[in-house]
Amino acid sequence: MPNPQLNAHGELAHLLSIDGLSRDILTRILDTASSFLEVSDRDVKKVPLLRGKSVFNLFFENSTRTRTTFEIAAKRLSADVINLDVARSSTAKGETLLDTIDNLVAMHADMFVVRHAASGAPYLIVDHLRRTGRSDVRVVNAGDGRHAHPTQGLLDMYTIRHYKKDFAHLTVAIVGDILHSRVARSDILALNTMGVAEVRAVGPQTLLPTALEKMGVRVCHDLHDGLRGCDVVIMLRLQNERMNGTLLPSAREYFKCYGLTPKTLALAKPDAIVMHPGPMNRGVEIASEVADGPQAVILPQVTFGIAVRMAVMSILAGN
Ligand code: CP
Q1: How much is the pLDDT for 295?
Q2: Among 6, 79, 113, 253, which is least packed by CB within 10 angstroms?
Q3: For the CA atoms of the chain, what is the radius of gyration?
Q4: What stretch of H or E contains 8?
């Protein structure tokens, strides 16, 4: 089956998932992001690459980092940005997602940035645009259910490349609620594509999906085994909003077994970096001493996210 995010020439037309994207495409996005990083340091933080284009932010689920950095990125590319206020939109009166899309296309939308609780919602939009002859309108997945969060995966790769330079010899541990995490799925796909030496998934059995080993991931139920000798530690929060029933005894127990503290972080390499996509739950998956400590690169991840999202939108717009 053809990859719906690529056009007939194998170029990126939409960004829906890391799945099926080559190392060349990922590297091109990261290299393009590098060229945008300095735009944020200019007096006039703008380039005209999306001048005259309308970018619609459609966030049907809460967001702080992704929604805001997409808005900043689009504005730095000189696009007109429209943030649909979903809570006050006609979605609340029963309008379907695709009717909303048709109406926004009628307002001359050029790009949709979509976050939705339903896995696959951005794919549905891409398919609808194709069937209605509007494949020129671009779609970026800003997180769909527990399926994918490709720009988070890309900004995580950007962060790792920034601090570690070469992917080939790295051991990366992803710790926490991997079962419900679209970030973990996107990171694992991207890390494998970029050719890291080892990806470890660390967490209790109830929070790890069964298919991890098929993805080439080493599964560790013991935090100490998982962290030993790592170059990169990616911490994930417990995604209670996606859990059906209780999968853990308590947050306190969880922190005791899987919380990243100065003592457990000492098992990783001395120059290991600590990442977290946010939002963090301090005292649940990460101690404040680590979150605010010298090895944390959690806030630089957010800053890099602007450049990476500029790169994605610019490439999709044909630049
Ligand atoms: N990392 C991430 O997706 O954060 P937000 O939910 O705040 O966008």
Answers
A1: 98
A2: 253
A3: 19
A4: none
- Give 209: exposed, middle or buried? Use CB within 10 Å, 0-12, 13-18, 19+: middle
Q: How far is the CA of 65 from the centre of ligand 1 (A)?
A: 5
Mean residue pLDDT of the chain comes to: 95
Contact 49, 319 (CB under 8 A): yes
User: Is CATH 3.40.50.10730 correct for 23-148+303-316?
Assistant: no
- Is-contact 111 138, C-beta < 8 A? yes
Q: Where are the chain's structural domains?
A: 23-148+303-316, 150-297
Based on the number of CB atoms within 10 Å of its own CB, is 313 exposed (0-12), middle (13-18) or buried (19 or more)?
buried
Mutating to test ligand 1, I would choose from 58, 62, 63 the residue with most ligand atoms within 8 A of its C-beta, which is 63
Q: Where are the alpha helices (DSSP H) in the chain?
A: 23-37, 65-76, 97-106, 121-131, 150-164, 182-194, 223-227, 251-258, 262-265, 288-291, 298-316
Atom 3 of ligand 1: nearest residue by CA position? 66
Pairing mode of beta strands 232-235, 273-275: parallel
Which ligand 1 atom lies nearest to the CA of residue 115? Answer: 8
Average pLDDT over residues 201-224: 94
Q: What is the distance in A from the centroid of ligand 1 to the CA of 1?
A: 31
Distances (CA, A) of 115 to 56, 63, 315: 11, 9, 20
Q: Which residues line ligand 1 (CB under 6 A)?
A: 63-66, 143, 152, 277-279
Mean pLDDT, rounded, for 216-232: 97
Q: Find the mean pLDDT for residues 31-46.
A: 91
Please state whether the predicted TM-score (pTM) of the whole model is above 0.90. Answer: yes
Assign a CATH topology to domain 150-297. Answer: Rossmann fold (3.40.50)
How many whole angstroms from 98 Cα to the centroid of ligand 1?
Answer: 24
SS3 (DSSP) at 198: strand
Q: Encode pLDDT of 248-258 as tens digits.
A: 668 888 999 99
CA distance 233 to 175: 7
